[in-house]
Amino acid sequence: MSVETAELAREGLAPEPSRTADFLRRMSGARLPALFVLTVAVVAIAAPMLTGYAPDAGGPDALLPPLLPGHPLGTDNIGRDIWSELAYGGRVSLTVGILAALTALAIGVVVGAAAGYAGGALDTVLMRVSEFFQTLPRFVLALIIVALFGAGLGKVILVLAILSWPQTARVVRASVMSLKAAPFVDAARIGGMPGHAIVLREILPNALAPIVVVTSLDVATAILLEASLSFFGLGDPNLPSWGGMLNVAQEYLRQAWWMSLFPGAAIALTVLAFNRIGDCLNAALDPKRRGAR
Predict the structure, then answer these.
(1) What is the pLDDT of residues 94-143, one digit of tens each?
(2) DSSP secondary-structure letter at 202?
(3) 158 near 103, Cβ under 8 Å?
(4) Domain with 124 in it
(5) Alpha carbon 245 to chain centroid distance?
(6) Residue at 217 is within a domain
(7) How far is residue 130's CA from residue 125's CA, in Å, rounded to a whole number?
(8) The domain that contains 136 carries what CATH number?
(9) Is the pLDDT of residue 233 over 70?
């Protein structure tokens, strides 16, 4: 620090750091979680090149422990390679988590924006509906719906999205209600811009921060719920998943600990990573925290 900068700092006149630099500083705690999520995504995409076995290919070498040639993470009860199952299972977890969160985001943004901007009776009705969904036990309801209508990746994504949109809707509604009286919105309204254009062009871009935070947390929740459904045998039976691996492993906890350790660790670390990213985004994008010194 130069003498001039130090003098300005003592007088409280030092230049403010750029928004980008400040954002990156506040996001420093998310670097390791983001790297982990990126690694999981790369491994899932490149699974055919990184594994030497199909995830459903059994063999004579059942219940082999880890660190043996050809099977770095061991094999399961019918000889399937754990590393291969783990890599391919990441596809299911990330696909369900991301698509369920994006679908919930689309529903929540539409409902929340309509309720917040229109107000009145429409706001009351939409918020009562969202409150009804929020009172429902998410996992139990997902368990019942999937059990009744059958397992499948598309059905699981749709069920999780339908059960996750109310939180996004309420966040969007609060942001829209606080912004719709802002001067720039009044200027757009006076200029003759229609209501839907005001919401899309003026309000939602300025309400992006809390929406991004909620969506990142929804990804973690969806991954955990999908793993729970698969653990109870309600996942897609044709696709390898971490929850499905745990379902098989529960009968071999004492004689083959690796069958449960690796998928369990993958679920826990992935959910923890997305939650940590969401917490860091909340700290970095919160204007109150940005203004604190």
Answers:
(1) 999 999 999 999 999 999 999 999 989 999 999 999 998 888 888 888 88
(2) I
(3) yes
(4) 23-291
(5) 21
(6) yes
(7) 9
(8) 1.10.3720.10
(9) yes
Q: Give the Cα separation of 119 and 114 in Å (integer).
A: 8
pLDDT band at 14; cut points 50, 70, 90: very low
The residue written with tokens 């998310």 in the block is: 30
Distances (CA, A) of 219 to 10, 138, 285: 44, 14, 18
**Per the structure, how many domains does the chain have?**
1
pLDDT tens-digit readout, 135-187: 888 888 888 888 888 778 888 898 899 889 999 999 999 999 999 888 988 88
Q: What are phi and psi of 178, to 5 degrees?
A: -80, -25
Tokens of 42: 């790369």
- Specify if 18 maps to a domain: no
3-state secondary structure of 96: helix
Max Cα-Cα span within the chain: 76
Q: Does residue 187 form part of some domain? A: yes
Treating both helix axes as pointing N-terminal to C-terminal, what angle do 82-118 and 153-179 enclose, rounded to 10 degrees? 40
Is 9 inside any structural domain? no
Q: Look at residue 1 and tell me whether its pLDDT is greater than 60.
A: no
* DSSP per-residue string spanning 219-282: HHHHHHHHHHHHHTT-S-TTS--HHHHHHHHGGGTTT-THHHHHHHHHHHHHHHHHHHHHHHHH
Res 6: pLDDT: 47
Contact indicator for 168, 211 with CB cutoff of 8 Å:
yes
